[in-house]
Design goal:
Strand order of the largest sheet: 4-3-6-7
Structural class: alpha+beta
CATH architecture of one domain: Sandwich
InterPro entries: FN3_dom (IPR003961), FN3_sf (IPR036116), Ig-like_fold (IPR013783)
Shape: rod-shaped
Protein name: FNDC9 protein
Radius of gyration: 61 Å
Strand content: 15-25%
CATH superfamily of one domain: Immunoglobulins
Organism: Atlantisia rogersi (Inaccessible Island rail)
Order of helices and strands: EEEEEEEHHH
CATH topology of one domain: Immunoglobulin-like
Distance between the termini: 174 Å
Largest sheet: 4 strands, antiparallel
Keywords: Membrane, Transmembrane, Transmembrane helix
């Protein structure tokens, strides 16, 4: 048939064949596979891994997804018939294309960058949550005070505790004022008796708080 293989790269190859009159109303079958066991392999259709159907109006086909640095065998027949030796060609793919290699590297770098970015975002979110939780906890402890109560509660307890002491202190001050008033009144009465002895007609009875004895009527007459 005069099959030729052109534009061979690491991943693609163009297969060209002359048109056959028997396939004018049918299609062409392009079959290819790696030629690893060229001695033992046959030309049966079952031994080929890939088979593509090409319209009869075309006389070329680009084989894709090949492995670099690999030997392939390609055959072209009419209407999926079993190929013969003159309908096949053997070719070798080249090294990987620099463009495809750069694209692969870019895709790999992009995947690594996306993965690292997602991990960094997750770590940052965890750290931010921990910091906010710690700040809220410290603020709550500061508001509650050392004994686990709030300043308003502590102030209320202090006011409640200080109330009995305040009442007791107030009672003491009132008692002291009463004692002072009693002593002053007793002193005024004694001074009155000394200046006017004639007024001692009746015994003067002082309050027990003064704790002082007053002369009786007989003693007043003795003074007279």
């Amino acid at each position: 048939m005069g099959i030729t293989v052109q534009n061979i790269t690491g991943n693609t190859a163009m297969v060209i064949w002359p048109k056959m009159a028997s396939c004018a109303d049918s299609f062409y079958s392009v079959m290819y596979r790696p030629n690893w066991n060229s001695v033992l392999s046959t030309y049966s259709r079952k031994s080929f891994q890939k088979e593509e159907r090409v319209p009869a109006s075309r006389s070329s086909f680009v084989v894709e997804n090949l492995t670099p640095l690999t030997t392939y065998i390609v055959c072209v027949t009419c209407q999926s018939a079993n190929p013969s030796g003159d309908q096949c060609r053997v070719f070798n793919t080249l090294e990987r294309d620099p463009a495809s290699a750069s694209n692969t590297k870019k895709e790999l770098a992009l995947g690594i960058w996306l993965t690292s970015s997602i991990l960094l975002l997750i770590i940052a979110a965890i750290l931010l949550y921990g910091c906010l939780h710690l700040l809220c906890r410290r603020r709550r402890e500061r508001l509650q005070g050392p004994n686990g109560t709030s300043p308003e509660q502590d102030h209320g307890k202090a006011r409640t505790k200080s109330t009995p002491y305040g009442l007791e202190e107030l009672g003491r001050q009132s008692q002291l004022m009463q004692d002072t008033e009693g002593k002053q009144s007793g002193g005024i009465q004694l001074a009155t008796i000394i200046e006017n002895p004639s007024v001692c007609k009746e015994p003067v009875v002082l309050t027990p708080k003064s704790q002082e004895r007053v002369p009786t009527a007989g003693q007043c007459s003795a003074i007279n």
